Predict the structure.
Amino acid sequence: MDISSVFFALVTVVAVISALMVVLCKNPINSALSLVLTFFCIATYYAMLNAPFMAAVQIIVYAGAIMVLIVFTIMLLNIRVDANKKSTHQVALGSVIGIVTLLLAGIFLSRGKVSAPVGDITNAVINNTGHTELIGKVMFTDFLLPFEITSILLLVAIIGAVILAKRKLS
């Protein structure tokens, strides 16, 4: 067993434990911090797959910006921890849905096959051109419209958050 396999196993254990803590923590801030740790583990996977741009975007966008929005929302809504309101029906339903999802994922993974890469982008092209340049070319040529629509949706979400915050303060 080489060092990369040991490191992968260690990151996997941390990712699974932190993902469980997201669900099991009673305090929403602790859940958000556990989610940050999970995002860092995912960024580590990207780095191990030789995708440094995706690792950096994972940390900057998800562990940074998205988590700031989530924590801001938690604080703005002033969510109180009330463990007594959970009914046994909700817990049972959530458990059944989780177990069925886990079983289906296991079935799909066991029956699936690994396919060969398809398209013009090979390892040689990636090494010659670079990850960031290839992603930028595709994003601003083939996917320009979805990129612009996403930016408009984010702008609308920010305006909505400001309006809701002003209404709460008044």
Observations:
- The chain has a mean pLDDT of 85.
- The domain at 1-84 is CATH 1.20.120.1200 (Four Helix Bundle (Hemerythrin (Met), subunit A)).
- The helical segments are 3-24, 28-48, 52-77, 88-111, 123-129, 131-141, 144-169.
- The longest helix spans residues 52-77.
